[in-house]
Amino acid sequence: xxxxxxxxxxxxxxxxxxxxxxxxxxxxxxxxxxxxxxxxxxxxxxxxxxxxxxxxxxxxxxxxxxxxxxxxxxxxxxxxxxxxxxxxxxxxxxxxxxxxxxxxxxxxxxxxxxxxxxxxxxxxxxxxxxxxxxxxxxxxxxxxxxxxxxxxxxxxxxxxxxxxxxxxxxxxxxxxxxxxxxxxxxxxxxxxxxxxxxxxxxxxxxxxxxxxxxxxxxxxxxxxxxxxxx
Amino acid sequence: xxxxxxxxxxxxxxxxxxxxxxxxxxxxxxxxxxxxxxxxxxxxxxxxxxxxxxxxxxxxxxxxxxxxxxxxxxxxxxxxxxxxxxxxxxxxxxxxxxxxxxxxxxxxxxxxxxxxxxxxxxxxxxxxxxxxxxxxxxxxxxxxxxxxxxxxxxxxxxxxxxxxxxxxxxxxxxxxxxxxxxxxxxxxxxxxxxxxxxxxxxxxxxxxxxxxxxxxxxxxxxxxxxxxxxxxxxxxxxx
Lengths: 230, 239
Description:
- The complex is a heterodimer.
- Chain A folds into two domains: 2-71; 74-228, D-Maltodextrin-Binding Protein, domain 2, CATH 3.40.190.
- Chain A is built from seven helices and eight strands; from the N terminus they run αααβββαββββαβαα.
- Chain A has helices at 2-19, 23-43, 47-71, 96-107, 168-176, 202-218, 220-228; strands at residues 74-79, 87-88, 93-94, 111-116, 129-134, 147-159, 165-167, 186-198.
- In chain A, β2 (87-88) and β3 form a beta hairpin.
- By secondary structure, chain B is mainly alpha-helical.
- Chain B has one domain (32-234).
- Chain B is 67% helix and 0% strand.
């Protein structure tokens, strides 16, 4: 009777394990699965098997899997250099999006490898996240369905006299450096800055959305916007 | 590619059906099972499972231990030659924040390690009386050592283990098994017969050689587990 209850929970857990997108949660479910089956064995009168299930299923395997996902704990970030968002030399990058992503990755215990995006060849197998003041994906040579979009920050899109579309931060830089006078820009529409996340890592997009929500609630997000963009 | 995986699935299902039919059509109890009659009188182990796998079916256990030995040896041999993973220091493995070793983790790690070692000693040496045994005890101690190494400096723990000559003892354990077989052969007429005292069931010196074999297997599995996990940690992300 008791073992039937345990097996029922084990069944539920194994289904949850399959649907769960976050790897860490999935591994914790797996450890819980080992513990619950060990309880089931105990009530079926097999304490030896129960011990082995607890030591291996809940202890050893969990550790092996945790070590293994540390290997996938590397995120390859491709960026388009954008003023105020992500700029600087390779070793000393700075900017709003860079700092945002960095604090998110530290929270997730992930490490990142940054390199400049070559817009002609976007290799999905070599890229997990694309950042850098992206407000429209129309001109990028990517498959829309293969990338998840996470909206970061609201922006405005302008058109200048050469009918070139430009976003807020890039326009600000051009005006401040005196390349183009401010009168030439004409407001068209509102848009959102996005992070593009490869569709095989849906848990990353989900966690990032959650993280942004928390950051906005705590007020740190507004503080970061003020500090880096102004 | 999809065709191949479908084929594999069908073959696996067929295999499962065949095994099920075999088991349901054959009476497995027709094989000779000496332990079905009076196991306590012939072996004096309170734990029937321990009596079976350390006495009546000890050859099975020997080959299992050999399989584990080969696995640990292979991991050691292949991964030893690879360079260390450079990007992350091993000591950062389980700490909550990846930047520094956490004091809370260090204290909790030592605590868990002590507990797991005490528990593993208990289940190794009481394996013939109650549930437990060498294999489980070894895994518990090995995982406990990994928890400790996650919260402390991995290199220091490795030095401590090397100064205790764990690896030499581990590799020499494989010699103890044939030696115990020969001793059993010399003392009575069959290999691997019990030569340790067999007193009343339930006492420490009962179950014949179960005590010795539980200890040997426990130590073997402990060091094997540690070797595998240690190399996985040290060289992770290299391949």
